[in-house]
């Protein structure tokens, strides 16, 4: 635990709450708060906790400044101050779950430190090859043992970062265990020398949740093989894009009255994402940690209630807090899934983990890695800073819904979708400006026009356990393939020409939305095409009922796309 005086750091700059955090003033307030930390740390705390400020107060920390040490890697790096020596000569390092929240942040760290990295993804390897050109990308599925042998051939160290929490309570435990056994057996056959696993921490004195029991069962399954396993056990992870951070943030921002269930007084030890990555890299570079288990956590031990209250204090928002004698975990999780971007299955697993204490039982890891981890407040500040700079490297939605990578693509649909609506607008704008404009739809910007219609459709989807529009997007000004935009996912992206979105709503069929810049004769047009593929009578009725609304929504959207480029729009034309 940090000295209590450290918690009294001034937050005078954070006076505007949610609205300020969405503006330049909010970013200034966050930076002011970080400066306050550095001033206090200068007067007696370890310099390991100091961000690197340059001239004129410009933050030089790689996580905030986004200046990677790895050419060709756009992702921020965390391990620049890690006091260990890279060991790339040991051999090839494989990362399972590379497309996920933590795996997507670990890969660039390893590349920057000179390792030969093989990133294992379930599908769409070409997209990740563009993101990490120096890594070897292989398609493999832990649930399909036949794909694992070639993927692990020649691997020295394997990071196991797979979990099935996104599948919901009914299936994740069995799926987690099956995947772990498959990986263990494949690693033994391939001659892997070491496995590093990130699991969940739980106190032995309290009965762990089903989620934590599953993580412990995975650890035991991996340890039953001949390959030495290093196990890192962590509690709640706080960072930009993490599910826990987004649940807490939206809970405090959206509710004037916050109800605390009976289990909200359980203790946990939240840890910043940068510290998780540093531990993962650090144990790789400390061979003596092979075959051992370590608990990892941040500096602060807090209850769920304290975490919520501290965040409200940081944002300077007034909230009423009410304690309830009831547990009502399922009801609480469902309600949180409606007011936060995070879907019910993930919320339930995370909340279920808070029913028992998740605190580090030992600090043996500090005998090997001596850096000082962040406190809860600092982790929040860094997460908000990343969001304000619109530079969130990975997000929980990268791995949800389950198996989205395997979804049928538009070009794979044969015959082509029968139902299609085309809307176009002649324009004098350049392709680059139009592309930039329509790539900003969704998220905080909304859909430029008739936003209430999009929100209503998303609300209906969320009530029926769909993804809804609350997921928002990873970044406000940039997109990449696989990014989420509300209830859509980016399927194809061709700069200056095309944006193709695939629907992940609850639908009686499959839907896509395509934005195009086309030249028809001497005229340039910006085009929206809605596709719908269905074989059911209900699906056909659904399309016919919504078709009139499409005309209103998409014609106005086209005008707004051009308006945001500059000139006044021309009259829209449509063909169905």
Could you give a short description of this structure?
The protein has 17 helices and 20 strands.
Secondary-structure-based class equals alpha/beta
Would you count the extended β strands for me? Answer: 20
The gyration radius over C-alpha positions equals: 24 Å
Strand fraction: 15-25%
Mean pLDDT score: 81
Distance between the termini: 64 Å
Q: Helical residue percent?
A: 25-40%
Biggest sheet overview: 7 strands, parallel
What is the overall silhouette? globular
Low-confidence runs (pLDDT<50, min 5 residues)? 1-27, 38-74
Structure description:
The protein has 576 residues and is α/β, with parallel strands linked by helices. It has 17 helices and 20 strands. A seven-stranded parallel sheet has the order 3-2-1-4-5-6-11, with helices on both faces. Strands 15-16-17-18-19-14-20 form a seven-stranded antiparallel sheet, with helices on one face. A two-stranded parallel sheet has the order 7-10. A hairpin with a 2-residue loop joins strand 15 (484-485) and strand 16 (488-494). The longest helix has 27 residues, at 537-563. The protein is globular, with a radius of gyration of 24 Å. The N and C termini lie far apart (64 Å). Residues 1-27 and 38-74 have low confidence and may be disordered.
